[in-house]
């Protein structure tokens, strides 16, 4: 079970760090919620359910963990204003599905948006997520 208060704290920290670093508070952001599962078939069923909610899904990747086991990871992707309440709403939509499928929610991240970049230029130089210290 996920603690929404802890998730909200992490979200506020990510957003504060981005804006303190000069990221554009008026931009739309690509938000990626990271999910993982040890069973590819179960991950596939999960992402179909999440896709039906209107999210994009990035291709799953296979990773070998230190103990030699395999884990499959992918991102649930959306483009939104970077507001804590919007991130929380997305988490509240997808976390019950993730829990039901036996998957792991590994937080979310986004990219720095340069307020001085031309409108047609994507500035994906720096990625921020809840694993950053």
Describe this structure in words.
Residues 10-110 form the Regulator of ribonuclease activity B domain. It holds the Pfam family RraB. Helix content is 35%, strand content 29%. It is α+β, with helices and mostly antiparallel strands and 133 residues long. It has a single domain (4-110), classed as Alpha-Beta Plaits (2-Layer Sandwich), CATH 3.30.70.970. Strands 1, 2, 3, 4, 5 and 6 form a six-stranded antiparallel sheet that branches. α1 packs across α3. The longest helix is centred in the first third of the chain and has 17 residues, at 4-20. The radius of gyration is 15 Å and the shape is globular. The chain starts with a helix and ends with a strand. The relative contact order is 0.25.
Layout of strands and helices, then pairs:
Layout: H1 4-20, E1 28-37, H2 40-51, E2 56-57, E3 61-64, E4 70-81, H3 84-100, E5 104-111, E6 127-129
Antiparallel strand pairs: 1-4, 1-5, 2-4, 3-4, 5-6
Helix pairs in contact: 1-3
């Amino acid at each position: 079970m996920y603690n929404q208060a802890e998730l909200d704290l992490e979200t506020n920290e990510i957003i504060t760090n981005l804006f303190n670093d000069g990221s554009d508070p008026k931009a739309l952001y690509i938000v990626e919620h990271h999910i993982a599962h040890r069973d590819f078939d179960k991950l596939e069923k999960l992402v179909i359910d999440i896709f039906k909610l209107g999210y994009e899904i990035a291709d799953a990747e296979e990773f070998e963990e230190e103990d030699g086991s395999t884990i499959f990871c992918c991102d649930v992707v959306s483009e939104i204003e970077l507001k804590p309440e919007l991130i929380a709403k997305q988490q509240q939509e997808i976390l019950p599905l993730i829990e039901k499928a036996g998957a792991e929610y590994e937080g979310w991240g986004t990219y720095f948006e340069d307020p001085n970049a031309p409108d047609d230029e994507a500035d994906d130089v720096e990625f921020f997520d809840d694993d950053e210290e």
